[in-house]
Amino acid sequence: MNRLMKYLSDYKKESILAPLFKLLEAFFELLVPLVMASIIDRGINVGGAGGADTGHIWRMGLCLLALAVIGLVSSITAQFFAAKAAVGFSAKLRQALFDHIQGLDFTNIDKAGTSTMITRMTSDVNQIQSGVNLVLRLFLRSPIIVFGAMIMAFTIDVKSALVFVVAIPLLTIVVFGIMVWTMPLYKKVQANLDRVLGVTRENLTGVRVIRAFHQEEKEEERFRGHTKALADSQIFVGKISAVMNPVTYVVVNGAIIALIYIGAIQVNIGNLSQGEVVAIINYMSQILVELVKLANLIITVTKALACADRVAGVFEIQNKEWQVTGQHKTASGEKPQTSVEESPFLQFDHVSLTYAGAGAETLHDIDFVVNRGETIGVIGGTGSGKSSLVNLIPGFYPVTGGAIRLEGRDIRQMPESKLRHLVGVVPQKAVLFKGTIRSNLQWGKPDATEEEMWQAIDTAQAREVVEGRKSTSGKKSGLDAEIAQNGKNLSGGQRQRLTIARALVRKPQILILDDSASALDYATDAKLRMALKKIEGGTTTFIVSQRASSIRHADKIIVLDDGEIAGIGTHEELLEHCDVYREIYFSQYPKERLKAAREEEGGVQDGSR
Description:
- This protein is α/β, with parallel strands linked by helices.
- Helix content is 63%, strand content 10%.
- The strands form 3 sheets. A 6-stranded mixed β-sheet has the order 6-9-10-3-11-12.
């Protein structure tokens, strides 16, 4: 929790005033039993003859009313400052947490998990906010009332006050013992909540697949199992926490019984008045009320501390600093002597990649060069590492071996913002955000003009998508047409074309299309590739595709097989020399296989003649 307190620094005034006003309220509350004792001894039982001093009763009554009003005003003021500090603290903490998560690389995000991040940004931060609020209001007030009541009791009668000396340590042991016991249990509760959220998120995003395979009952059973585990853990820790109130009541009521017994004896021998006994009992009752509040505070603070540890754990996740010392050696062990001016535009220098927690390398010894303006096709079987390869270019994942150089400079030595500005990425899953077509395109370039947007739209073959969109009133909206969350009001092909346009608006030096035309028909795909060839400025394009037709006209085709390069070359060169590419191509064009087989057979027969 201490690591998160820096987000409370802007609310120092509120954090001081809230406890001070609560202490003021506690001070006036401690005076109430003394006023009550005065009413009984001097107002009701004057001289012990049964007479009453009505004037004194009225004066003390008005005094009680004044104490109540002052206490109420102090309490409301304290609540205001405590709420302002707690809400402001949670807002800053949540923003800092969001900013930190946004700065994490893909490796750390994959490791932490989306559902856990969501839980820590919502439920955990809310628990911390409640804890801060209650601490500012009660953490000082309750101890002051408890120990203040004991001190006031000693000022009345030392012998009776010894009961407080026994009761308060017992209550302290109960409260803090339960706190120590339950803190790790609340962490388990939040972990179970993570699992429930993960299953919920998975089911909501995959509801179509679940229904398509008629797995509703199985998923309901799985969800029921996780919610039962969450409920069982909550019930178990709740039972332990619930013990606190009855145990404190038993101890305090036992102390009150002892006070009545001792007080009766003291009154009988004339050492105490009836009003003083009532005052001592009232002080014990105040302790009871405050300890009940303190018990609830401890439960909330225990939850808050457990959640604070989880949130602090996210801040402890840090991206590994890329250490680059000098030039990387080539496979032969000699340092390259090429200057920046002579370097190729993009170079993969014996690059390897191993994902965190993976047992083997995903990519191994990837070595090739790309010249500016070239179109590079990347093809291979499922799981061959195609997406992993292109995700290394914008630095989404750090290489674990070798180096990637852009114009002779290791990308690890480049500022992340500059590198990302040079690269336009269209991921496999087309993601659009709630808003308008214009706002989505501005993700690529915030200050893009309409001309630049329409140019990107035309290149992405998306003009009919934009011009055909209508507003809720039925009028054509064009760039201002509404996009639902995640583009749910668009087809798969429409989403893909708009995401391509979003990347093109930036006019990147490197454009990565990671299987981002899979939903397009062959004609639209061909038009898109032709339009990309005509882009001015020499954009280097990487096209990752399962379709041989999408990459066959590329300047260079990289064939991956099980994380290694099986072949590099043009379509014709690979058909002649690369078995993996030939197998992929002929599996998609069986007639070409048959034609090649016939030509080969004819060549053999001619040779035999």
